[in-house]
Amino acid sequence: MLPESSPERLLQRRPFGSWLLGPADQSPRMLRIRVQTLLTLFSIGTNLIGAVVVFVLAVFVLPGPPGDDNLTLVRWLAFPIYFLAALLIGAVWSTRLARRVTRWVLEERPATRREQIATLQLPLRLTMIEVVLWLLAAVVFSVLTLALEPQSFLRVVVTIIDGGTVTCAASYLLTEFALRPIAARALADEPPPRRLLAAGLEARTVFFWAVGSGVPVLGLMLTAVLALIEGDVSSTRLSVVILALGAVVLVFGWFLTLLSARSVVAPVRSVRNALTVIGGGDLNVRIPVFDGTELGSLQAGFNRMAAGLRERERLRDLFGRYVGTDVVREALTSDSLGGEERFAAMLFVDLVGSTELAAARPPTEVVHLLNQFFVIVVDEVDRHGGFVNKFAGDAVLAVFGAPTELPDAAGSALRAGRALARRLAEELPEATAGIGVTAGIVVAGTVGDVRRHEYTVIGDPVNEAARLSELAKSAPGRLVASMNAVEEAAPAEAAHWEAGDTVTVRGRLQPTRLALPAREQLSSAGDVDH
């Protein structure tokens, strides 16, 4: 089981950066319920805290003339009445807007371009509702203050606007956080052009710095102006005001900076975790794209990169199935034509009576038999370190020692021949095949045209192996090798072979000394030393 802190587990359990947002495959209904609940809680929480802080600062902390009991009673009544009314209006307004914009989620269909853009702009539009309500509060309480206590007008207006600005900024970041799963579904197919979205990362960073640091500092400066206007503020009172405002500035500035930093870190962290997973060899990774800024482009770019890597690996695997993994590795390191002389061993396998087989059986049955035959051949060649260079109808040419060098190429080919003879006799007796093995100097490399290459081996040993397979069709055990291959093999493998006649095979001028499996090996040809 993967540890909880591993990148794989984090991508599975926190695809959007937090467990609060749920898994990536949650149902549309559950997603709507989860997002609406978070939006409501965040909106009520931030605005309640902001409103209470503004009220306390305006009434009890900031310098100003003391009000009479009637004015205090009006403040205590007006504040909760407006807050509850604004909360009700804002909740209904925001919910209707969110449901209308995200209707496509419940309909379980991809978002259109217009719906995509509207979804990404939803945090801003929801925040603008709160901005309108805060501005309305500034107007209402400014009028109320002018009517009842004109000398406190500046204090009330400045406090409401200052506090409302910070509160709305925090609410925007929390709203953007809550809408990440829906934004990810909107961006699942293709992100819209950057020019259609909100400000980029640089503009956002500057804005939230201004709101989190500049606006609170401006509030401190205006507090000093209020103190100068009053003129009779004691040093103790001024100290209390500065300490209280300083604490508010520190807390709200820290909170806003934290939210802003996390909105930047979350997409970067998702890319980092996914890169770690890919580095571990797992290419089946896709991260949700839930950011509308350059960071979202980074997430989308990662997904394109991962898709490209998967496609490359698929092509590499497919390429390897046709030409062998060693040839793929050789092709990736060099794409030049030509070859080099190299000592290698050849193993040639040719099916006996394939023409009669094709005439006597249905084509589908013949293909099935050939596939069974090739499975056994490829399995033994791979197991002994060779690679299948060609499928020629009902014959197979396998090479040992090229393109990857083997410490005992001849011995590996001879062992593969003995194991192959045993398995064909035991597992596929209806497919009799002659097996020829030899070794020598060949030219191994890429031939063809610059537009199409083929890795091959060329030389006398290739022809000799093919001719030996013909002789093997009538030999005991259906396996014949050249003594040259036996002499080049390690003593442990050479001990399993004994010399036979000397013949001149068709197509060659030089005679070939044959080698056959030792007689005691005919009944146990597959007991291979590894």
Give structural notes.
The chain has 530 residues and is of the alpha+beta class. 62% of the residues lie in helices and 13% in strands. The chain has helices at residues 7-13, 28-61, 69-101, 103-106, 113-120, 122-148, 153-178, 180-186, 201-230, 235-279, 294-323, 325-333, 354-360, 363-383, 409-427, 460-472, 483-488, 491-494, and strands at 338-351, 387-392, 395-400, 433-449, 452-458, 479-482, 497-503, 512-517. Strands 1, 2, 3, 4, 5, 6, 7 and 8 form an 8-stranded mixed beta sheet that branches. 37% of the residues are buried.
Write the SSE topology.
Elements: H1 7-13, H2 28-61, H3 69-101, H4 103-106, H5 113-120, H6 122-148, H7 153-178, H8 180-186, H9 201-230, H10 235-279, H11 294-323, H12 325-333, E1 338-351, H13 354-360, H14 363-383, E2 387-392, E3 395-400, H15 409-427, E4 433-449, E5 452-458, H16 460-472, E6 479-482, H17 483-488, H18 491-494, E7 497-503, E8 512-517
Parallel strand pairs: 4-6
Antiparallel strand pairs: 1-3, 1-4, 2-3, 4-5, 6-8, 7-8
Helix pairs in contact: 1-10, 2-3, 2-7, 3-6, 6-7, 7-9, 7-10, 9-10, 10-11, 11-12, 14-15
Relevant terms:
530 residues, alpha+beta, eight-stranded mixed β-sheet, 18 helices, 8 strands, rod-shaped, disordered C terminus
Short description:
With 530 residues, the protein is an alpha+beta fold.
Low-pLDDT stretches: 522-530
Biggest β-sheet strands, sense, barrel? 8 strands, mixed
Helix content: 55-70%
Shape: rod-shaped
What distance lies between the first and last C-alpha atoms, to the nearest angstrom?
35 Å
Quickly count the helices: 18
Structural class: alpha+beta
The total strand number stands at: 8
Please state the oligomeric state of the protein chains shown.
single chain
Q: Average pLDDT across residues?
A: 82
Q: What is the alpha-carbon Rg in Å?
A: 40 Å
H-E string: HHHHHHHHHHHHEHHEEHEEHEHHEE
- Which band does the percent of strand residues land in? 5-15%
